[in-house]
Amino acid sequence: MTPAGDEAGALPLHRPGPAEQTVYARAQELDATLRDAAQDLGFTLYVGDQGPIDGRVRDTDLIDRAAKAGASGPDAGTWVVSPRIEYAGEGAFLVRIVAVPPKGRELRVRVDTVKGPDVSARGLVMLRDLLSSATAERAAEHVREQKRVDDMGSWGVMSTLHSQGRAVLAVNGALFGAFVAYSVQRASGNDDPRVLYPLLALGTGVGIGTSLLASEEWDISTGEAWFLAGGAWWGTAAGIGIANGRHVQPLSDRYAWGVGGGLIGLGLGVFAATRSNIDEGDAVLLHSGGALGLMMGSIAELAYRGTTGTDVTPYTGAGYGAAFGIAGAGALATFVQVSPTRVMLIDLGAGLGGLAGAALASPLVFEDVTKTKARGWLAATAGGAVLGGGLAWALTNDHGDAPRQTGLARAAARYGMPTAGVVAQSPDGTPAYGAGWQGQF
């Protein structure tokens, strides 16, 4: 950020742009140097952390960010480092680095005036001094863990692993690469196994290699790996479903639709992972959205046709439902933080509710099935699923799912939300019910 001074009347902190030619180049150089230095010191840069939003770089904002979820769990917190630079005249620059430890309430500051060519080197030294205590603590913890493992007679060193989702990503990457290779072979119209098997090996190798390269470059957690896998596979299912529903010819081209849907789902998953910290709960939420979307889309198509599905397969509804399901769940995952257990309980409630609705309305489809009766049975099934899922959501709502501090969440907190219930009471104790909007204006 710039400026770095604290004189009265100074410009507000902001990211230096190309128009600020004197500061911009040095700021870019300092930023790249500090990012590499942080990783060399053993820290992890979050892929989804895009830095301060809307100028939220006040001291209290840094402290709030330091209290958020870290790599070791939702209560671990995270280091926040805010470098500032300002041109001091005569080829010199004022460099200030502010750091806040995880869940800390104090700011650690280093300030120095250096010549332009020395900005990066001096910034690296200042960052090392600020994080030296943390590095020493991490080394001591590493030694303690190693001693504990040796005492237990085990092999290896217990420490925080880089890219814990590497295996999950590699397996799904291999399978998706093999599917892409098979789809290419089918689309070509060549059924020769002498072409298919080498192509499968090539696709599998490319999938594994890409996954391993990604996990080496970025710290991919298990939740992020399953999130990306969900986007790819549910996108593939959506593409194949839509292609079958549209009766794409020749049949081999439907595999290409599946590959296209998988690549779109994977791309959207990568975009979401770079915008927010994805965990296991978000991954389960994405898979849940795909499954529920597929079910609701199928019910919607069957209701449109006026059949119970015994004589037709709702490919189109299932495909579009899965697509909208993963898109909605993926977007929701970037705004809320929910536990995997709660998502699975809501899915269980939706499933049991749908079964209960279908059972209660089953007399409609015992005999003399008409379009009206079929639509009534489907509506009861869908309604039961919605009521069951809503009831499970209400019963598991312990206020433990905190919204992420994103633009949408801040807007909702600022502008309020709808309310309903008892708004007043008459002198004789009779309640008056109403609805309204509660928030800041």
Description:
The protein has 441 residues and is mainly α. It folds into two domains: 21-149, Rossmann fold; 222-406, no CATH class. Helices cover 58% and strands 10% of the residues. It is built from twelve helices and five strands. It has helices spanning 21-40, 59-66, 119-151, 166-188, 193-217, 222-245, 253-275, 280-305, 315-333, 340-360, 371-395, 407-415, and strands at 80-89, 92-100, 108-115, 417-425, 431-438. The strands form two sheets. It has a three-stranded antiparallel β-sheet, sandwiched between helices. A two-stranded antiparallel sheet has the order 4-5. Strand 1 (80-89) and strand 2 (92-100) form a beta hairpin. Helix 1 runs parallel beside helix 3 (119-151), helix 4 (166-188) runs antiparallel to helix 5 and helix 6 (222-245) runs antiparallel to helix 7 (253-275). The longest helix is centred in the N-terminal third of the chain and has 33 residues, at 119-151. It is flat and about 90 Å long. The two termini are 31 Å apart.
Provide key terms for this protein:
Rossmann fold; mainly alpha; 2 domains; 441 residues
Write down the overall geometry. Answer: flat
Q: How many domains, in number, for the residues?
A: 2
Q: How confident overall, as mean pLDDT?
A: 80
Note the gap between the termini.
31 Å
Tell me the strand percentage band.
5-15%
